[in-house]
Amino acid sequence: MVDSRLSVAVLMGGRSGEHRISRMSGWAVLTGLGSEGFDAWPVLLGRDGRWSFPPTEAVDPAALGATPLATGDGLDLPEGIRTLVDRAPDVVFVAMHGPEGEDGKIQSLLELLGLPYVGSDPYASGVAMNKPLAKAVYRAHEIPVADDELLRRGDWEQDPVGTERAIRSRFQPPWVLKTPKLGSSVGLSIVPAGGDLGAALESLFEHDCTIMVEEFVAGRELTCAVLDTPGLGSTRALPVLEITPVESDFFDYHAKYTPGAAREVCPAPIDDGVRDWIQTLALAAHGALGCGQMSRTDFILGGDGRLVTLETNTIPGLTPTSLLPQQAAAAGISFGDLVAGLVRDAARVRPGGGAWATP
């Protein structure tokens, strides 16, 4: 019988640009699991890739920027893995956003170690994190997306003028530029008609050798989470949430993580038909990508009624005020119940197999 006496390692931090946000999610998960009686303890991956096993209070967001554990301290990878295995957690809760946390790498490591973990498997994680691959899956399942084109750094370096001319010919401004494998609006630029398209391309090519140019669709920003974990009921789409930035032109990093920089309303004030459509598409995206336990898919609803799918997050923000927890709350699921339910069900997963075992 799975109960709250489980030992849970909460992984947070990492080398991505979302290190700080990951630590905030990790702290919230630790607090939520602690309130439900779990033996939860932090594993902090520094910005330099080193592993630390600090006391819980050391990862309090109040200490962000003050603690040396963010970088330059801790164990190298082999010692970090050995320490994690020696501490033998029953479940690992991955609260790492962005590359190395959300792209399947840490999930592959945990499967090799035989440690059950919360969330999607390496395959779904990797595809969902790669925007062009995810959009190919969406298209194959008739999930609507915006038009796009991939640019490679080598082509840009050989003919920057011709590349820029081709973009201007195919896409109307503003131009949406995205690096394929970053999240939280890191590696995203929206260039207005009078903006310096060439400078934006050059800047983004510093992050990746490929850039996706995407059609800009003006409209309302909506998101819908899916829970696919037996302990929290049958697979279902949660209430749709609407995001309205108040200090930015779109839901960028500042709007996502600065208090008061965006209004978030859940349930979203939309027609029932639109709500049902979005929930159907969120479930379709979750299933098509092969996500496990939870996901959150983002959409734009144009003024003409056109709906486009932006991306699916396999490890959404997990603070109590993040989007997925807000949607869970609107469905009557408290933050403590949410994280506890995810952990209890992850404990039923056979290590390396991904199949639900008998409780």
Overview of the structural elements:
This protein is an alpha+beta fold. The chain folds into three domains: 7-119, Rossmann fold (3-Layer(aba) Sandwich), CATH 3.40.50.20; 128-144 and 217-314, D-amino Acid Aminotransferase, Chain A, domain 1; 148-214, Dna Ligase, domain 1 (2-Layer Sandwich). The protein has helices spanning 19-35, 77-87, 105-113, 122-129, 131-140, 153-158, 160-170, 197-204, 253-257, 272-289, 323-330, 335-346; strands at residues 7-13, 39-45, 51-52, 91-94, 148-152, 175-178, 188-191, 210-214, 219-228, 236-237, 241-245, 262-265, 293-302, 307-313. The strands form three sheets. Strands 9, 10, 11, 12, 13 and 14 form a six-stranded antiparallel sheet that branches. Strands 3-2-1-4 form a four-stranded mixed sheet, sandwiched between helices. A hairpin with a 4-residue loop joins strand 13 (293-302) and strand 14. It is globular and about 60 Å long. Residues 68-72, 251-255 and 350-359 have low confidence and may be disordered.
> What CATH architecture of the largest domain do you see?
2-Layer Sandwich
Q: What is the percent of helical residues?
A: 25-40%
Would you tell me the structural class of the helices and strands? alpha+beta
Strand % is 15-25%
CATH class of the largest domain: Alpha Beta
- Encode the helix/strand succession as letters: EHEEHEHHHEHHEEHEEEEHEHEEHH
Question: Rg to the nearest angstrom?
Answer: 20 Å
Q: Spans of 5+ residues with little confidence (pLDDT < 50)? A: 68-72, 251-255, 350-359
- Find the CATH superfamily of the largest domain: ATP-grasp fold, B domain
Q: Which shape, going by the Cα principal axes?
A: globular
Say what the CATH topology of the largest domain is. D-amino Acid Aminotransferase, Chain A, domain 1
- Average pLDDT, rounded to a whole number, is 87
Give the distance, in angstroms, between the N- and C-terminal Cα atoms. Answer: 6 Å
